């Protein structure tokens, strides 16, 4: 029998969010997305299949990640919204500035600040990631969403084609725990139920969640992979996956979407169409073929004519 103290403790542990109009990931439900969100039938949709042999190699500038080595400000908010698990920094957190990125193919003097990160994973180990790399679909993919600081909030940023950068990270399975990932994995039980959120104080850095080798990445123009599928995203997809143990992977598979197990929350592949996918390569002989006048990122073409 529960006492009043038990109820108070439970209320302090997590907050039940109000029900929201969601969307589903079944084949039929995804087919219906464009009926409510016309952009989901657009020509610049994500995710896509990436092939190293078909990507265009360029000696692109590095992706500069400022604040990625610093602990995220606390408290953070861990949320199960029924479609994914999301980590954000509380608006009440005392901070200087959130981590931000620039460089790569991004326009000069444009900075993109972290808004949130979230995950897509499978019920089984042979699926889960949204992008497919060289025919491989990894069991999980993380998206770190960044907003162009020229726009005051994410909603405003989604109205502009240069509004958002999403950094995508694949995960591959191994027997041993990824100790850097354990702080987050250990908190997931606190948001088991759909539409709940939990304040957490994790000593965690973004750098600990991404691959140690960030030299090679793919980049293309696309969209959000969830409705309303706004076509405002520059994607940066790291080639090297991050390890995660089978047990850590299973901590995602005990979560609920409100009716059943939360999982297989990945969008089906979209047609790449006339879009180009670039890969950053740093071979010295290859790089020497280019100079500043030839590799003009200002006029970089993202589409085949």
From TrEMBL:
| GO terms under cellular component | cytoplasm
Name the domain of life.
Answer: Eukaryota
List the keywords (alphabetical): Signal
- Show the GO MF annotations: carbonate dehydratase activity; zinc ion binding
Q: Show the PROSITE patterns listed in the entry.
A: ALPHA_CA_2 (PS51144)
Per UniProt, residues of the Alpha-carbonic anhydrase domain are 21-281
Q: Which InterPro entries match?
A: CA_dom (IPR001148), CA_dom_sf (IPR036398), Carbonic_anhydrase_a-class (IPR023561)
Q: Which CDD domains match?
A: alpha_CA (cd00326)
The answer to whether UniProt assigns keyword Magnesium to this entry is no
Q: Which residues form the signal peptide?
A: 1-22
- Quote the Pfam families the UniProt record gives: Carb_anhydrase
Q: Which PANTHER family match?
A: CARBONIC ANHYDRASE
**Family according to the record:** Belongs to the alpha-carbonic anhydrase family.
Protein name, entry field: Alpha-carbonic anhydrase domain-containing protein
Organism in which the protein naturally occurs: Ooceraea biroi (Clonal raider ant)
């Amino acid at each position: 029998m529960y006492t009043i103290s038990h109820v108070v403790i439970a209320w302090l542990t997590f907050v039940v969010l109000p029900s929201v109009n969601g969307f589903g990931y079944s084949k039929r439900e995804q087919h219906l997305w464009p009926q409510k969100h016309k952009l989901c039938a657009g020509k610049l949709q994500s995710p896509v299949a990436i092939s190293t042999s078909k990507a265009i190699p360029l000696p692109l500038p590095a992706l500069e990640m400022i604040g990625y080595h610093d602990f995220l400000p606390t408290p953070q908010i861990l949320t199960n919204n029924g479609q994914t698990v999301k980590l954000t920094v509380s608006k009440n957190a005392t901070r200087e500035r959130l981590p931000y990125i620039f460089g790569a193919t991004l326009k000069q003097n444009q900075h993109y600040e972290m808004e949130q990160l979230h995950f897509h994973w499978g019920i089984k180990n042979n699926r889960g990631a949204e992008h497919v790399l060289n025919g491989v679909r990894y069991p999980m993919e993380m998206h770190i969403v960044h907003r162009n600081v020229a726009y005051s909030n994410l909603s405003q940023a989604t109205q502009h084609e240069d509004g958002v950068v999403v950094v995508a990270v694949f995960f591959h399975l191994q027997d041993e725990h990824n100790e850097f990932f354990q702080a987050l994995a250990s908190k997931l039980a606190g948001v088991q139920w759909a539409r709940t959120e939990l304040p957490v104080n994790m000593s965690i850095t973004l750098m600990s969640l991404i691959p140690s080798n960030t030299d090679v990445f793919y980049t293309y123009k696309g969209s959000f992979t969830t409705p309303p599928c706004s076509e405002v995203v520059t994607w940066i997809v790291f080639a090297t996956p991050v390890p995660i143990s089978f047990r850590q992977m299973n901590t995602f598979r005990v979560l609920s979407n409100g009716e059943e197990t939360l999982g297989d929350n990945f969008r089906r592949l979209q047609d790449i169409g006339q879009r180009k996918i670039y890969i950053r390569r740093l071979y010295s002989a290859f790089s020497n073929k280019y100079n500043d006048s030839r590799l003009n990122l200002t006029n970089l073409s993202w589409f085949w004519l």
